[in-house]
Each structure stands twice: as C-alpha cells, then as structure tokens.
Write a structure and sequence with these properties.
N-(1-d-carboxylethyl)-l-norvaline Dehydrogenase, domain 2; pentose shunt; 9% strand; 7-stranded mixed sheet; 478 residues; binds 6-phosphogluconic acid; 6-phosphogluconate dehydrogenase, decarboxylating; 20 helices; alpha/beta; NAD(P)-bd_dom_sf; two-stranded antiparallel sheet
Length: 478
C-alpha cells in the first residue's frame, strides 16, 4: 500500500480530517460502512489531494503503507468496538489504530490493553474544533504509546492548528491520557458556556440590555482578557435575528440544553478522583435542569423576586462588574479542570505535562482563547504550578475582581436570576481561601453518630469522643 494514513468513518469529522491530511500532502485511504459516502468524498473533494477510495476492510488495509495507520472516526461506544473487531484481525504488529472519537478514557484503556497484547498500538485521540477545526486545523490530544507517536505525531502535528508556529498537538501520555484530557476540555467547555449564559441572562434581565446590545458588549469583551472563540460566537448568536418571526434568534430557541455526555463524564470522573469541580458540575446540572420540563412546570410561577432592569446609567457599571465576575469564575473553572488533570495523571501514572495541555489548547479547540496563552506562560514559568491561583498574576486578577464578582452574585440572588456557575466559583474561592472550614463540625457529627473519629488541631493522633456516656470522655485510638 501507498497511503500514509487511512480514515474509516466518513461522516463530517472523518471526512474533514481526511481532507486535511490530503491537503497536507499525505496520501489518504478512505473507507466507510456504506461506500456511497466514500465515493461522494472523492467526487466532491478528490481534487484537493491524493485519496485512495476502498470498499472492503481488506482493500482498505491493503491500501496502507506499513506500519499501517488507521484513523477511526465512528460514533463513540459500541460502533468503535465493532470497527476494531473488524480491522484488528487484518493488522500486524507495529500497526496503529487511532480512535479520534469522543471515547470514554476507560474504554480507551481497555481497548489499548487488549490490542497491545497483539502488538498493535491503539491511540485514543482527543480532537477538538468541530467540523471547521477538523478541516482547517484542530487541537489534537493523542494518547497511547510514545513509540506510536514517533511515526504518527508528525502527521498529526502537520494537520493541527498552529499558534506562534507551534502545533496544537502533543503526545499527552500513555493509553487513555489523550481521551481523558479531551474529556476535561469538554467539561471546561461546558463551564465556559454556562458562565457566558449566566452573564447574558444577567445583562438582559438585570442590566436591561437587548440581545443586540449584549452582542455588542461581548464583542467589546472579546478585545480584552476574555478574548476567545466562545465569546466571539456568542456575539454572533445573540446578534442573529430569526428570519421567520423577526425576533431575536435566542428568543425562539427552546430553552432546554442538550448534551452528548462528555461533560457528564468529567463530573463522574471527578467524583471518583475526589476533585471538587463544582463549576463544571453546575454547568452539567444547569443543562439537565433546563430539560426537566416536569420540574419546571411544578416550580414555575412560585413567588419570588422579579428582576427589574436597571436604569441605563447603572447598567454600564453593571456590565463591567459582570465582565469581572465572568473572568474570575472562568479562572476558577479552569483551575478546577487543571487540578483534575493533575490528579488523573497521578492516579493513572500518565505524567501529563500540564503546561503542554495549555499550549495545545491555545488554538484549534472550542475553548481556544488568549487566556490559554496566559496559562501556558504560567506553566512555562513554573512547570509544577499546583494551582492557577498560585500564579501571582492570576491571583491578583481574581482577588482584584472579587468586589464586582461578589456584587454580581449578590445581585443575582436578590433579583431571582439563577447564577449557579458564578456562585459555585465564588464559593470555591471562599472555601479554599478560608482559614477554617465548618468541615470540623461535619467531623464532629460523623464521630457522634458513627464513631468515625477525628484529628485534632493541637496534637497528632486519631480520636473519638464517647458521646453517649456522661462526661463525654475523649479516647485516643491511635
Ligand atoms: C469539541 C467539542 C465536541 C463536542 C460537541 C458537543 O471539542 O470539538 O467538545 O467534541 O462533542 O461540542 O458536545 P455536547 O453535545 O456534549 O454539548
């Protein structure tokens, strides 16, 4: 075979990645369950580069140079296993199967281990950037063996987005590391989106701005420290008018946010790792709450404050406060994500370079932002940064924003406008900032009802108080 890479699964992501490889001079073998898609790709885009269309699994494998590199772009879950079962028997030791779907990292670990027994490299790879990213340059997060990256890495780097000449692709770590990091990316994506949604809601219901005016505010923010793809597209969505009704587009869309599940996985995994990713969790919960029509029906109209849009003079100052609340909350959300990467890397022994993750998210992916340059710089200065808030510049920004941030959260509560992600971010900040936490009381309660013991602040050891006995003597247990 002559093709340097093969792509099987030619729905929009697979098709665009195949075209991206071809545009970069690689010969690309094509395969799809139904051959019509393969033919359509060649008919529509054949002029863009060298494609080798194939119809059977055997022809597809035969079209590839060795070691073979097969990129699988099918729906995550059962279909991925089916494709692996179809192709693995046709492969030889040293060949590489790349899964570019949004697979759960535990599935990737299982698949990698199984294929490794047969000498086949399995590279679970995060790919972010949607359709356009896949074609023009995504952010790519490959896991799998370091050996597989030697031959595969240069090709992935070639088709990835570039920032300051650096590719938005790096070897994340062994087995499921790539898909884990992509999952956390999506958790952060959910948090970013929810924070932006809350900012919009407050600007509209408390600030009294129209969607068109809010689009303008977001455009302004996009020239500052919030500069990001998500802020940019938010302005586009808010400025859009529905053609059939003439109303703001945002007013004719059903207000129930859906999810394919990667945000939920982030939170499920965080619970297992013991990571308090509260802002990401609130973003996932906000989506599910929006979809519970039965609950919304039961609560709708219950008495409570009604937001009254403020006078224009005040709304300008309010918009500035919302920018600060959004920025501070964003730092917290990212800090939660980075902490989760640190802990995942430790638990699974992946040795993930956290600074490199920031670097490859500067471009191509959905959360791409000027802000990622800042995180990347912070890790360049201090590769073992334990938290973004341990970076003096971030700490200054967040502490500097907090008066506005507190005021926005207070205003939201007083006005009856939900701001779960803003509030969770602020509570997280205050929790970790506090000298003492009421966790001490929780420990006391646990010891009272379950003899679960506690530690003392003044001397080492494990203690239990005999709560049921008169005198409530304390016994040291170890
Ligand atoms: C990306 C996105 C992408 C994700 C969709 C939908 O990085 O390109 O994260 O991978 O699948 O945006 O996600 P939800 O349906 O869960 O919102």
């Amino acid at each position: 075979g002559t093709a340097q890479i093969g792509v099987t699964g030619l729905a929009v992501m697979g098709r665009n990645l195949a075209r991206n490889f071809a545009r970069h001079g690689y010969t690309v073998a094509l395969h799809n369950r139904t051959a019509a898609r393969t033919r359509a790709l060649v008919a529509d885009f054949g002029h863009e580069g060298a494609f080798v269309p194939t119809e059977t699994a055997a022809d597809f494998v035969a079209a590839l140079e060795r070691p073979r590199r097969l990129l699988v772009m099918v729906k995550a879950g059962e279909p991925t296993d089916q494709v692996i079962d179809e192709f693995a028997p046709l492969l030889e030791p040293g060949d590489v199967i790349i899964d570019g779907g949004n697979a759960h990292f535990l599935d990737t670990r299982r698949r990698e281990a199984r294929l490794r027994e047969r000498g086949i490299h399995f590279v679970g790879t995060g790919v972010s950037g949607g359709e356009e990213g896949a074609l023009e340059g995504p952010s790519i997060m490959p896991g799998g063996s370091a050996e597989s990256y030697e031959s595969l890495g240069p090709m992935l780097e070639a088709i990835s987005a570039k920032v300051d000449g650096e590719p938005c692709c790096t070897h994340i770590g062994p087995d499921g590391a790539g898909h884990f990091v992509k999952m956390v990316h999506n958790g952060i994506e959910y948090a970013d989106m929810q924070l932006i949604a809350e900012a919009y809601d407050l600007l509209r219901r408390v600030g009294g701005y129209t969607p068109i005016q809010i689009a303008e505010i977001f455009r302004t923010w996009n020239t500052g420290r919030l500069d990001s793809y998500l802020i940019e597209i938010t302005a586009e969505v808010l400025a859009h008018t529905d053609s059939t009704t003439g109303k703001p587009f945002v007013d004719i869309v059903l207000d129930q946010a859906e999810q394919k599940g990667t945000g939920r996985w982030t939170v499920q995994t965080a619970l297992d790792l013991g990571d308090p990713v509260s802002v990401i969790a609130q973003a996932v919960f906000a989506r599910s709450a929006s979809g519970h029509t039965d609950l919304r029906q039961a609560y709708r109209g219950l008495d409570g404050p009604t937001a009254h849009p403020m006078a224009t003079a005040d709304s300008n100052a309010f918009a500035d406060q919302v920018e600060q609340a959004l920025y501070a909350s964003k730092v917290i959300a990212y800090d939660q994500g980075w902490k989760m990467i640190l802990d995942g890397s430790r638990d699974y022994d992946w040795s993930i370079d956290q600074g490199a993750v920031a670097r490859i998210w500067r471009g191509g992916c959905i959360i791409r932002a000027a802000f990622l340059n800042r995180i990347s710089d912070a890790y360049r200065q201090r590769p073992d940064l334990p938290s973004l808030l341990a970076d003096p510049a971030f700490a200054d920004e967040v502490t500097g924003a907090q008066d506005a941030w507190r005021s926005v959260v207070a205003t939201a509560a007083a006005s009856g406008v939900p701001a779960p992600a803003f509030s969770a971010a602020l509570a997280y900040f205050d929790t970790l900032r506090a000298g003492r936490l009421p966790a001490a009381l929780t420990q006391g309660q646990r010891d009272f009802f379950g003899a679960h013991t506690y530690h003392r602040t003044d001397r080492p050891g494990v203690f239990h108080t005999l709560w049921a006995e008169p005198g409530r003597a304390e016994v040291q247990q170890s």
